[in-house]
Automatic annotation (TrEMBL):
Domain of life per record: Bacteria
Keywords attached to this entry: DNA recombination, DNA-binding, Transposable element, Transposition
InterPro entries: Transposase_mutator (IPR001207)
Residue ranges, compositional bias (Low complexity): 87-97
Family classification: Belongs to the transposase mutator family.
Protein role: Required for the transposition of the insertion element.
Region (Disordered): 81-104
Name of the featured protein: Mutator family transposase
Organism classification: Bacteria, Bacillati, Actinomycetota, Actinomycetes, Propionibacteriales
GO molecular function, one term: DNA binding
GO process terms (BP): DNA transposition
Organism: Kribbella caucasensis
């Protein structure tokens, strides 16, 4: 799991120019989203838009979930999978939930 350099650069540039970016909350959102995406990739057996012989499932869009953290509310995109649950840890994300943060 690696955060894209461009995403980190955009965040830091926005923070420096004072465009109203909350650096802590946005950092939490980026890290949590990367963890959720990595977990979905593991369950599917292939990355997003990637063809693979080891694929065992398919992505089917995503849904928004609000996670309340000490840094503030963070909106995350939870991938939906065609077969089974979307994700082990992220499936328990609900409004006001902070327990999934403790699991990671």
């Amino acid at each position: 799991m690696a955060l894209s350099q461009s995403a980190v650069s955009e965040l830091l540039d926005a923070f420096r120019t004072g465009e109203g970016v909350d650096l802590i909350r946005e950092s939490v959102r980026m890290v949590m989203q990367e963890l959720i995406e990595a977990e979905a990739t593991e369950q599917v057996g292939a990355g997003r838009y990637e063809r693979s012989e080891s694929r065992v499932n398919e992505r089917n869009g995503s849904r928004a979930r609000l996670l309340a953290t000490q840094a503030g509310d963070v909106e995350l995109r939870i991938p939906k999978l065609r077969k089974g649950r979307s994700s082990r840890s992220s499936s328990s994300l609900g409004a006001g939930s902070t327990r999934p943060c403790m699991r990671w």
